[in-house]
Every structure is written in structure tokens, then in C-alpha cells.
Amino acid sequence: MSNPPLSRLLVADFSRVLAGPFCTMTLGDLGAEIIKVERPEGDDTRAWGPPFVDEQSTYYLGVNRNKRSIMLDLRDPDDLQVARTLAEHADVLVENFRPGTMARFGLDETTIRQANPELVYCSISAFGPGAGRELAGYDLLVQALGGLMSITGPDQNSPTKVGVALVDVLAGLFATVGILSALHERERSGAGQHVEVNLMSALLSALANQSSGYVLAETIPHAIGNGHPSIAPYDTYATGYGALVLAVGTDRQFNQLCSTLGAPQLAQDNRFITNELRVQNRQALRDSLEQALAPHPAGYWTKALTAQGVPAGAVNNIADAFQLATELGLAPVTHTADGDARLGRQVANPISLSATPVTYRTRAPHLGEHSADIRRWLDELETQHQTA
To answer: For the chain, what percentages of helix, strand and coil (3-state, to nearest 5) are there?
Structure first.
């Protein structure tokens, strides 16, 4: 088996909370050496709980595997010099401070590039380096200001956030793509570059059909519960017991749905013959479908409809979802190779590479766990550099 694809890369991780750490953990899973720089108080997420495992926040544990931690107080001149040495030897630097913060310490992209022209420097912010530079960057706020809450929830009068910090995750993924692209370009040009991602732009891009509907047709969408603005039936529906999701995207699937429900006449109803008509008459369609679904519970319909190729399923909780993924052979849970039975239990990376698979080497580090080792290593690097 070959070494992981990024095994030769050194990443200086000056980020904290979620977007940056999610990005660097992904790079670490792909083999990069990640050195996590933490202030004396540690990453904010170390205190975000419950839940905790062995007094460690599961929030922190979930996005910081495959990293080594060094504790540095950037206000201390000696610690700041260690941080600069790390940045000057890194292949990639990731930071998600407010714009201007790194410059105050002489760790900004322009300054560090003078000593390290091959560096790929990634900055993740909430609203970019311009007029929004002083705005706070919490995911909930971006979900509100970026329009996501306006299209989420039971109706347009009940704006609702998504149940996870989705914008942070999206920004982390976009940052990862940007970094990998810059590294690929560096192979050709020999020079690094500045990668910038902000949460607001990441969200607007990820709104996909909703944002393109506004940009192209000036249509402003609003929340319609679990329904889809352009597809029907595509929603949750009441059954004899429990809710059932139907995700019917074609006329063929709709015909099969109606046949399986014992209501083939619905497929010939003039209100439901095409998807466009079904969207226009979505409430009448709901009434008809729920009447047909009433004789049996959601579990019954899930099996019956799935067997006929109709996308359908009950609404799982998180435990149910992991159980289903396990039954499907997706191996959603893994363990780090360091043998830590509790803290090393991890959600698996979804990327599957046939020749150079992702690795799970170490659990998330304790605060400053590797400070002494990293300092010695950096001293050796600097000595070698000066005598070269």
C-alpha cells in the first residue's frame, strides 16, 4: 500500500472551532502532518459540551484527529518566534482569525511569504476581508444573514437553523479544495499563493438551486417545511403510524408510487400528470397520498416502496442512521491507530481512495501535548536551514 497522498506536507494549523479544524483534519486524514497551534486557553471547542468523554469535549474530539498540539502565547516574543519558524517551514498555513489579526503578529501572508515563497496560505473568515471584516463569525449568524434560515423551517414565518453548523463545514470543505488546487499549481509553478474562503460566500454558493433561482429568475424562495420548491412529491407524509419521506423525482417513479399505494388513478389525475402540475397542486397531492398511506405504518411503506424502486424511507434519528450505514456496509465508525479505545473512536472520513486510502493515526491531542517535541524539531529545522 502506498503512503497517503499528502504524507510529505507540513500544515501549520492556526485555526480553531470548526471551519478551519475541519479543513486541516481532512488534510490530516489524507496524510499531511498537522501541527495545531493553540493559545494557552486552548481551542474554544475544548469547553463546548456536554457531551464529554473522559473530560474531553466530543465537539473538539470530532474535528482534531491526526494532529499534534503545541501551546503558544503569541503575545510572548519567544512563543511568537516559534510560531514564525513553524510558518516559515510549512507547506500550508491555515488560519481563521478575524481579518488583520495575523498581521498584528507578523504572521500574515505577505510577511511570511518573504521567507517562504512556496507557502499555500489559507485564510477563512466569516464575511471576507472587506466591509465585513469586523462582523462576528458564528455559524448561526451566517445562517441568518446568508438566507439559509429563511428557507428552512415549517413555513416562512418560522425561520429555523439547520441542526448542525453546516456553513462552517461547507467553508472547511471549500478551503480544502482551494488548498489542494493551490498545491497542484505549486507543482507546476513552484510558487505558493493565498487561498481565501469566507462563510458567507460559501453558503451562497452552496444554496445551489435556491440561489441560482434568485440570480437567474429573481425568485426569492421561502421555507416550505420539508418540501421542495421544484419537485413533488418530495416531502414527509403522514402514514398509519410515523412519518414517511417520499423523494419522487420522475413521472415513472410517481406512476410506480401510485401503483404500489393501490391508487393508480392518481397518476392519471389531471392535477398530477406532470411534475410541474404536482408542484402547483402540492396540497391536494398531499391529501390524496396521505389517504392512501393511512392503512399501514411508515416501516411497511418503506419496504414496499423501496422494493419497487420508489425512493422512500422513515425519518431516522442519528443512532438509526449509523445503524443503517453499518447494515449497508459503509463502515461509518472507525478507530485511530494509536490504540486509544475511547477517545480514538471516530466518525469515518467519507473519501475512499483505492490506492492511497485515508488514515486514522492519532486521536485529537490534549492541549500542548506535543509542545516540547515540536519545539525541539523546529530548532533542528532552523539549525539545518541556517547551516545549509
So the answer is: 40, 15, 45
Q: What is the pLDDT of residues 167-216, one digit of tens each?
A: 999 999 999 999 999 999 999 999 999 999 999 999 999 999 999 999 99
pLDDT, residue 135, reads 83
Q: Where are the alpha helices (DSSP H) in the chain?
A: 19-29, 58-61, 77-89, 101-104, 109-115, 139-145, 166-189, 199-206, 209-217, 251-260, 275-280, 282-293, 298-307, 318-327, 371-387
Other CB atoms within 10 A of residue 385 CB? 12
Mean pLDDT, residues 351-364 taken together? 96
- Residue 320: CA count within 13 A, CB half-sphere: 5
Q: Quick check: 239 and 293 in contact, CB under 8 A?
A: yes
CA distances from 255 to 263, 284, 308 (A): 10, 17, 11
Q: From the candidates 13, 43, 139, 168, give the one annotated as an active-site residue.
A: 168
Please say whether the beta carbons of 205 and 55 come within 8 A.
Answer: no
Does this model's pTM top 0.90? My answer is yes
Q: Is 168 a catalytic residue?
A: yes
Q: What is the DSSP letter of 47?
A: G
